[in-house]
Amino acid sequence: MSARFDNFGSLGDLFPETEIKCRIRGCKNTIHISGEEAMHNLAKGQASRSEKMCEQCYQLFLTLQDKEVPCSKPGCTATWTWNRFQQLENAASGYGDTPPKGFCTACREEIREGSDLEQPCRMRGCKNTWVWSRRMQMQSSDGKPPRRLCEDCFQTLKKLEDRELPCRVKGCENTFVWNKYLQLEHLREGKSLDHPPRRMCASCLSKFQGLSNSTEPCKVHGCKGTWVYSAYEQLESLISCKEGETPEKPSRMCKECFDFFNAAQDQEVACKNRGCDKTWLWTRSMQLGFRQKGDVKRPPFRMCDDCTSRLKSLSDIEEPCQIRGCKGTWTYRPEDQLRDQLLGRKAPQKTCKACQEFLGSHEAMEIACGRCGKVFSWSSQEQLLCSLGVFDKPELCADCVQKEMAEIRPPEAKPIPKEDKYTIRIPQGGVWNEDPLIREWPLHMCRDAIARMEEAAIRIVCFGDEMTSCGSDLSKSWPALLEQRLQERYGQEYGKIAVLNAGIPGCTTRLGCRRFARDVLPFEPHLLIVSFAFSDTRMQHHESLKKENMAEHLERLSADFDQMCALFKQLPTYCRSLFWLPNPVFPQQDGIITPDWRENGRIDENARNFFEAHLRQIRQKCRNESFPLVDGRALFEIAGMQNAMRWMENWFQPNEIGLNNFVGWFENTIQSENLLQGAQEE
Fold first, then answer.
1. Which of 16, 40, 564, 609 is the most buried (most CB within 10 A)?
2. What separation, in Å, do the N-terminal and C-terminal C-alpha atoms of the chain show?
3. What span, in angstroms and rounded, lies between the C-alpha atoms of 374 and 367?
4. pLDDT in tens, 329-345
5. Long-range contacts of 9-17 (CB under 8 A, 24+ apart)
């Protein structure tokens, strides 16, 4: 029997020896367990895991004693028991003898009676919550929950890592750290991490904090406005500048100038030289400069590029003095040469400076006749010729000279008296020279036109603005067409009829008064046809006019009209006057005949109303003064709007049909009002 169970003595050999961890949490030591002990534990129904401590923990356990530790609840004076087993685990976990946070019995009971609370996540943009447990509530000193992340944000945060991004300042090569908390906030705002924010590095931020916005003057000469040089722009300039150098401040416009510059458009302006049909470009920058001078209503008078090039190729020419016997010269300036070339003129005849000074310093002298003693005048011109040796000083008066000549030669047959030829003399100096717009003669008033007026039996002057001038082609203007029509109708009765086109584009009633003595009075017209309504309201320049200023402008134009009427008293008594109003304008109408219909842009609505008010005022003035009036606007509109638009070349000028209609209306008014009766009175 004993032999049968001999092998049971080695049953423990079936259980190998093992190394098991110490039962104390946090301890990394192991305990050696033999096979017999393992079998013994198994026989007792115990787990194979040992309930023993390692030798080190056991020795420490023997030295420990239970401790009373203050309750962790703020304000509670009670204690709780920190037993030695808990102390052993605390030491094994590496916390030494520092007790954990615990609660007394009363506080633990209070925790059991409380409840967990849902608190919002601290991350901006996140709508989730986290649980503020009863234990954490008990540990709170002020009863307020801490700021924490929800579980979703916390898990997302663990996956994120801080990133280095380039500084946003242009020219800076540094970086800044975009930490994971900021990345999480970026995500919660619904943004992608592929599009990180643009921020400054620490160095740029430090410099930026030392800067501040500064107010700088506008770069436009004459402007008193300012613009703000921001601290960020200053920082960019500082970064782009080399070390040790001071960055230059940029030159910019103020907001008002910048807005004007953006709204303005380059304009093609006619060359100032008469006879040249080319243009020059009035740029936005030039318009801005003129705006600072307070003159943006009209472009300046300048030459086109071709005229400028031609002018540079010309040089001063010394021309001989026109005085007989004088060997001096006068300087023919390039400007005068260019003007005469464009108009097809030859070099004028002028006196040299010495002759001018002689004539200016010598007045006519009174000398006595050597025969009869009669005093007669010796002109400065004859004195000049005498000083040049080409003229003898007179000794006899005109009567004595005539008697002497009669004694020398036989009497001639008495000539048949001829009718004196009518001569027109245009004055050279006057107030018109003070304004560059009217300084030169009207475009169509030339020597040939003056000669035709001298030879005509009936002289008609058309005095006005661009609606009278009608462009550079005289033959297509309504004054030229009117001359042909009147010649056909009244030629046999009166003889030759001449119509002078004295229109200057942009000329107002006020400027017309200033040139009245040059462009009207010398011709002693039998009929004067007048209109400045279009330029008076500056329709072609599209000026914005406020409603509150309209009455003031109308009052000024009324005074100008009265001044013009007062000048009519200087005309011959036989002269008749005829006023006329221009056709309607269509600045905002599309698709009418020519593509340049809206080439001048949109007209201001207030300016259109001002134009209408001015026309009404002229009608009333003409009725009060009993002046005949051709109302072009009314006559156009009577025919219907469609016909009126078919009569237009562009938004304000009539085409050939419209001009011929005007000529017919002028002819009918001249006939019905008997406006040529002045020729009979003369």
1. 564
2. 180
3. 8
4. 989 999 888 888 888 87
5. 11/39, 12/36, 12/38, 12/39, 14/39, 15/39, 15/42
579, containing H or E segment: strand 576-581
Taking the C-alpha atoms of residue 654 and residue 583, their distance in angstroms, rounded to an integer, is 8
Contacts of 116 (CB under 8 A, 6+ apart): 131, 132, 133, 134
- Secondary structure class of 629 (helix, strand, coil): strand
Q: What CATH number does the domain located at 431-681 have?
A: 3.40.50.1110
**Which is more confident, 585 or 280?**
280
* Overall average pLDDT of the 89-111 stretch: 82
CB within 8 Å of 145: residues ≥ 6 apart: 117, 119, 132, 136, 137
Choice among 33-37, 249-253, 501-505, 564-568 with the minimum mean pLDDT:
33-37
Return the structure tokens found at 624: 């009060």
pLDDT tens string 611-624: 888 889 999 999 99
- CA separation for the pair 114, 101 (Å, rounded): 19
Mean pLDDT rounded to a whole number for the chain: 82
Q: At a CB cut-off of 8 Å and minimum separation 6, what does 97 contact?
A: 87, 90, 91
* pTM over cut 0.70: no
Alpha-carbon span 127 to 150, nearest angstrom? 9
Considering only the C-alpha atoms of the chain, give the largest distance between any 2 of them, rounded to a whole number of Å.
Answer: 206
| Distance in angstroms (rounded) separating the CA atoms of residues 246 and 611 | 57
What angle is formed at CA 523 by the lines to CA 631 and CA 341, rounded to 5 degrees? 100
Query: Could you tell me which residues come within 8 angstroms of residue 220 by beta carbon, excluding any fewer than 6 positions away?
Result: 253, 254, 257, 288, 289, 292
Q: Are strands 129-132 and 163-166 parallel, antiparallel or unpaired?
A: unpaired
Asked whether 466 and 270 are in contact (CB, 8 A), the reply is no
Q: What is the 3-state secondary structure (H, E, C) of 50-116?
A: CCCCCHHHHHHHHHCCCEEEECCCCCCCCEEEECHHHHHHHHHCCCCCCCCCCCCHHHHHHHHHCCC
- Domain parsing of the chain, residue ranges: 6-63, 114-157, 160-206, 211-258, 264-313, 366-407, 431-681
Q: How far is the C-alpha of 601 from the C-alpha of 579, rounded, in Å?
A: 29
List pLDDT tens digits, range 224-276: 889 898 988 888 888 888 877 788 888 889 998 899 889 888 888 889 888 88
Contact 462, 503 (CB under 8 A): yes
